[in-house]
């Protein structure tokens, strides 16, 4: 499993080369409309997951596309237009991905500097899983900035910062887990805000061949080390 590329924009991302991708995951603000909340230049069909709303009614939602059509200059657009930024992560794995489970968490009120997405933890159904988490935050009086995750293993791959008050910021992150354990993403930022986040698990089979690194699988890595080899190459 590998992160191929990522992008962000408001409402359209910069162009990236998605050749070889097996999974797109996007985070954006969405309150239930328009009818086409996300689109891309390859004309893919996206799966919409449930929305998580803050108590003020702002919504955050994940979208994904498995086995997408790709191209060398790929852009992604939030159908709501300017003010509804989007962050996209693009992944590859020779064995492919299947959607497993997801959940969401939001702040109550607007004076927060952190959010634990996943509540008590989202537990995937299989050991080898790609976890993806997205968050959107809005502040009435400040620029929300420096969105990071304190919980271990997460990599924030894109963060769209609207450098003004009364604007929405979005970010997306991922991590690999090798056991089916309850997983959360502990986001924090600078400036009081209201936020909503979504977290999802995608199942895959590490070391499936065709370009994936088999040593990403802890079981295969342990066998390799036991045999006194540093790698298979």
Keywords:
15 strands; disordered C terminus; 6-stranded antiparallel sheet; 7-stranded antiparallel sheet; mainly beta
Largest sheet: number of strands, sense, barrel closure: 7 strands, antiparallel
Mean pLDDT level: 85
Give the number of domains. Answer: 1
Helicity level: under 10%
Q: Estimate the strand proportion.
A: over 45%
Name the shape in a single word. globular
> How many β strands by DSSP?
15
- Class by SSE composition: mainly beta
Explain what this protein looks like in three dimensions:
Strands 9, 10, 11, 12, 13, 14 and 15 form a 7-stranded antiparallel sheet that branches. Strands 1, 2, 4, 5, 6 and 8 form a 6-stranded antiparallel sheet that branches. The protein contains 1 helix and 15 strands; from the N terminus they run βββββββββββββββα. By secondary structure, the chain is mainly beta. Mean pLDDT is 85; it is low at 209-233. Strand 13 and strand 14 (167-177) form a beta hairpin. The chain has one domain. Helices cover 4% and strands 49% of the residues.
